[in-house]
């Protein structure tokens, strides 16, 4: 194993448990949910120095155990501060059951609008319906809801991101080789869009793709999937993984087999660990999402709904392909977007 991969291995173990970006594995048996941690906890309408009432917004986030969501929460906090809005928030710690209880508790604070990043698209539907029943408009950020009335949906342009990955692979693929495709869990709608964009380019270019396999957004499962691909196919020239933890897992498996030099590996998210491997040349590229900007957009749309204004039904936040040639500007994005105090 390459030394840089060994150095990052331990750090990646925790990060890979959560897929960011909107393609996380569904939780197992939900644990009992304690009351959410809120910051701050107003007891009634707060006022500015001028005496005007502040708008109270709520945010239920699936987890802050992954840098992607840390950045997103930072965007929400900073934009709420800039807009002089009050904010109460709760971290569900990757537990769909806990998130439902979190939202019940947040609704008791009577917010003017609520933002939600669901842990599970199906499980969140009753909570969305409960918000609507109480007259609280809903903004969904990143991971979609399978039902319920949503006032605005903030999402990365996943289909275009898949196309960017596909176009890069098509340009750099060695003649006579095929492409492996590692999927997130099949129920993740945003990740499915990534696969659709990638597949569309492969069809347009006439490039052969090995039948895709899911690895549930997890690095260790992606290692196993890639090991199976490598045993069955001697002509793999590229790998597209629908998130960065799986891309890293695929790269490690290829390195262990002595075959990483035969192929290019492309991920999706722009995770700090993946960016480091892109810089070192061990991942060819990743599609960068901008979670901080997604959080900012969520607050902007939530404030529109809170004030009775029309919000955008869907806000597609652009994505960018990151390679060794342009990585400096994107690592700069990470450095600038520190979590708000």
Name the features.
six-stranded parallel beta sheet; disordered N terminus; 2 domains; alpha/beta; 341 residues; Rossmann fold; 11 helices; 12 strands
- The helix count comes to 11
Structural class: alpha/beta
| CATH class assignment of the largest domain | Alpha Beta
**Largest sheet at a glance?**
6 strands, parallel
- What CATH architecture of the largest domain do you see? 3-Layer(aba) Sandwich
Distance between the termini: 39 Å
**Structural Rg:** 21 Å
Segments where pLDDT lies below 50 for 5+ residues? 1-22, 24-52
- Sheet with most strands: strand arrangement: 2-1-3-4-5-11
Mean pLDDT: 85
Tell me about this structure.
This protein folds into two domains: 143 residues, 3-Layer(aba) Sandwich (Rossmann fold), CATH 3.40.50; 147 residues, Response regulator (Rossmann fold), CATH 3.40.50. Helix content is 42%, strand content 17%. The chain contains eleven helices and twelve strands. It has a six-stranded parallel beta sheet with strand order 2-1-3-4-5-11, sandwiched between helices. The chain has a six-stranded mixed beta sheet with strand order 7-6-8-9-10-12, sandwiched between helices. Helix 2 packs across helix 10 and helix 3 packs parallel to helix 4. The chain is elongated. The chain starts with a helix and ends in a 5-residue tail after the last helix.
Sequence-ordered SSE layout with sheet pairings:
Elements lengths: L2 H13 L40 E6 L5 H16 L3 E6 L4 H12 L5 E5 L7 H9 L4 E4 L10 E5 L1 H15 L5 E6 L5 H17 L7 E2 L4 H14 L3 E6 L2 H13 L7 E6 L2 H9 L4 E4 L2 H16 L7 E4 L2 E4 L3 H10 L5
Parallel strand pairs: 1-2, 1-3, 3-4, 4-5, 5-11, 6-7, 6-8, 8-9, 9-10
Antiparallel strand pairs: 10-12
